[in-house]
UniProtKB/TrEMBL annotation:
Family: Belongs to the thiamine-monophosphate kinase family.
Keywords: ATP-binding, Kinase, Magnesium, Metal-binding, Nucleotide-binding, Thiamine biosynthesis, Transferase
Protein purpose: Catalyzes the ATP-dependent phosphorylation of thiamine-monophosphate (TMP) to form thiamine-pyrophosphate (TPP), the active form of vitamin B1.
Sequence positions that bind Mg(2+) 4: D30, T45, D75
Protein name: Thiamine-monophosphate kinase
Chain positions recorded as Mg(2+) 2 binding sites: D47, D75
EC category name: transferase
Organism: Psychromonas aquatilis
Length: 334
């Protein structure tokens, strides 16, 4: 790109928000220099979104800017980190000022909400692609990981499941799979990173992951890392008003909704394991702090040496009866 074009882009990304929040040197030198507070460790994550692969080419630039940061902040939340800084590498086919302005509006609205400062980046010309790297801090040795789920822990999720996957399916499908697709597309494109809950889970949860690839796939990461089995109770899967409305009006069956909830991706909720008594103390702490955050109980962690499951780490029940998940649906409901 020409020098002039870089100037234009610089204008959008270099904000006059001063040097604060541990930023010794921000945008404008070869590197950013950041101060990590004593007693903390740095948590770093990176995600790339490529046009035509991770988002539709005609995506609303506001929502793209928002989501590019949101998926990174969701990873920080899953480790219990406090989000602090981000860098952004953006490849653009051309300099489209209205598009850039909207992209930045989405990115910075979310950044400001969680006091995340943009500390660097890179701009190149080519097919549209966005890479964000987010950095956070976590008290030393206390990051939440995928590897310490304990036998008899409750499996909890921070919000409704399946809406994002339904939004994607609605966008990809030629036929109408829901009566009103807007709430599902909103869920897909405007996910809320669960940073506040993630920080509260430190000292309480035994393991945690954010749901990007779907409940069963992401839970399997915890089960493998922790060497555990688990059972999920279908009747306890939290379904949104939007999904319940589609079920009531006959556009979606309950078993289809469960299938989206279990195998669909893009929920960006936190999935965590926690002992019964720590869950009680977490709920008390949340209510003392006036935080109305969801912790839906959806299943239980099992001992692999004493498990009713045969040949699989993850099983499903409906009203205490085992059900089998098939790629195309639930045996139980055929
Ligand atoms: Mg993740």
């Amino acid at each position: 790109m020409s020098e002039g074009e870089f100037d234009i882009i610089d204008r959008y990304f270099k904000r006059l928000n001063g040097l604060e929040s541990g930023v010794v040197i921000g945008i404008g030198d070869d590197c950013a220099i950041l101060d990590i507070p004593a007693g903390h460790q740095l948590a770093v994550t990176t995600d790339t979104l490529v046009s035509g692969v991770h988002f539709f080419e005609d995506v609303d630039p506001y929502r793209l800017g928002y989501k590019a940061l949101a998926v990174n902040l969701s990873d920080l939340a899953a480790m219990g980190a406090t989000a602090k800084w981000a860098s952004l590498a953006i490849t653009l086919p051309d300099v489209n000022e209205p598009w850039l302005a909207e992209f930045c509006r989405g990115f910075f609205e979310l950044a400001d909400k969680y006091q995340v400062q943009l500390v660097g980046g890179d701009t190149t010309k080519g097919p549209l692609s966005i890479t964000v790297s987010a950095k956070g801090i976590v008290p030393t040795g206390q990051a939440l990981t995928r590897s310490h789920a304990q036998v008899d822990d409750v499996i909890c999720v921070s919000g409704y499941l399946g809406d994002g996957a339904l939004g994607l399916a609605a966008k990809l499908s030629d036929t109408k799979i829901v009566a009103d697709q807007q709430p599902f597309i909103d869920a897909l494109e405007l996910t809320e990173p669960r940073l506040t809950l993630g920080q509260q889970l430190i000292d309480h949860a035994s393991s945690c992951i954010d749901l990007s690839d779907g409940l069963s796939q992401d839970l399997m990461h915890i089960l493998k890392k922790s060497d555990r089995h688990a059972q999920l109770h279908l009747e306890h899967l939290p379904l949104s008003e939007a999904i319940l409305t589609e079920i009531d009006s006959g556009h979606l069956s309950l078993s289809e909704a469960w299938q989206y909830a279990v195998t669909g991706g893009d929920d960006y909720e936190l999935l965590f394991t926690i002992s019964k008594h720590k869950l009680a103390s977490l709920r008390m702490r949340l209510s003392e702090q006036g935080l109305s955050l969801n912790c839906f109980e959806i299943g239980v962690i099992l001992d692999p040496n004493n498990s009713p499951l045969t040949g699989e780490r993850l099983g499903f029940t409906h009203l205490q009866q085992p059900v089998t998940l098939k790629k195309t649906g639930w045996d139980h409901f055929k």
